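[retry 2/3] HIT family hydrolase: previous attempt timed out, resubmitting with same input.
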Amino acid sequence: MAYDDQNIFAKILRGELPAIKVYEDDQVLAFMDIMPQADGHTLVIPKSPAETLMDLDPKAATYTIQIVQKVAKAIEKALDAKGIVLMQLSGAAAGQTVPHVHFHLIPSSVHDLGKHAVQMGDQEKIKALAEKIKAAL
Ligand code: 5GP
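[retry 2/3] HIT family hydrolase: success.
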């Protein structure tokens, strides 16, 4: 499907919407999920326009997964996470709600995951968690 450049993450990438960022370089952005399924729920997105993992350029996918690992290590260290769920939903049929490819890092257990994208988080608490993750990068 054609990439919709009006999606929320495209707007965050262009600076048209705010985000609590933990990492950014010329190819990737990592920021806190606004409706976290657990404390420290972070999203990692490539900057290149792709809707799903299958649409993503393999080189961008390779680089993005390196940053996913880097941020996961920071979450582990900063929040003393005993386990991290890496989740990637490709396609509305899989439950994808924002049509720009992204990787969820959720410090939790698959058995304890809260509901997906339903409950707005406490933004001050999320900011404090982001500061801890940033300090551990
Ligand atoms: P998906 O369902 O596409 O795999 O995940 C989209 C994620 O984006 C959800 O976890 C949802 O909470 C999060 N999200 C939706 N809108 C926003 C937003 O405006 N800002 C941020 N930071 N996260 C968002």
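[retry 2/3] HIT family hydrolase: The chain has one domain: 8-136.
[retry 2/3] clearing retry counter.
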